[in-house]
Amino acid sequence: MSTDTAVERHPHLAQKLPEGWVRVDMHSHTMWSGDSTTTPEEMHAAVVDAGIDVLCITDHNAIKGAQELSDQLPCRVIIGEELRTGPGEIIGLFLSERVPFGIGPDEAARAIRDQGGIVYVPHPFDPMRNNLRESELRQIVDEGLVHAIEAYNSKTSLQSLNQQAADFAVEYGLLAGAGSDAHVPEAIGAAYVEMPDFDGPTEFLDSLAQGRIVGHHFDRARVWRPRIVPSTRAE
Predict the structure, then answer these.
(1) Is 213 left (phi over 0), alpha (psi -120 to 50) or beta?
(2) Does residue 227 belong to any structural domain of this protein?
(3) Which of 8-17, 135-144, 163-172, 219-228 has the lowest mean pLDDT?
(4) How confident is the model at residue 1 (pLDDT cuts 50, 70, 90)?
(5) Beta-carbon count within 10 A of 210 CB
(6) Model confidence over 136-146: pLDDT tens digits?
(7) What is the 3-state composition of the chain as percent helix, strand, coil, each rounded to the nearest 5?
(8) What separation in angstroms does the CA of 232 have from each of 65, 68, 90?
(9) Distance, CA of 62 to CA of 50 (rounded, Å)
(10) Is residue 144 part of a domain?
(11) pTM flag (> 0.90)
(12) Domain residues for 99?
């Protein structure tokens, strides 16, 4: 893909980052998610095209894809999981073990934190998604289990819902993150955080506190591609 075409698709590439800063897409999916068909080869090209330095791969109820891609992509990979709890979804970042889906949000959050991970709540107020119910969200926040809220999700069509999430983060003193929630390669980098570089989850949180969100709504129809996606397993 030519540089000119890439800049047209991703205008942010024309803006130079401060020295020592990186672009982090905090929410993405691969063919291991089940509802995404993005192959490793497509992910490789998409990351380069979008200028993403760090990609959080957060497949549904699985970490195997992130583990396999961690040394295959031209960017750093943070191993994550978007897991379904009864009242809605929660993301764990910096995981070493898969968290089983179907457990309660408090148990899920504790399981993430017990392995040194970061608890990140995606699309918290978007009723068109499997968002965590507000009562349960407030409960685990009150219990001090949540590190960050997704304040910008590029698949959320109403910006008022992203703003509601951003306001919630301010209300509770939580960190604000952003991610493309990409289920197709073209969506990678539609939303991300510019932040100082980091090493590990503790520095990640410190850097996220200084970060700035960049994003736009990605609503293009999924491009049909004839393919046979290799079978994948959650574990």
Answers:
(1) beta
(2) no
(3) 219-228
(4) very low
(5) 11
(6) 999 999 999 99
(7) 30, 25, 45
(8) 8, 11, 22
(9) 24
(10) yes
(11) yes
(12) 3-215
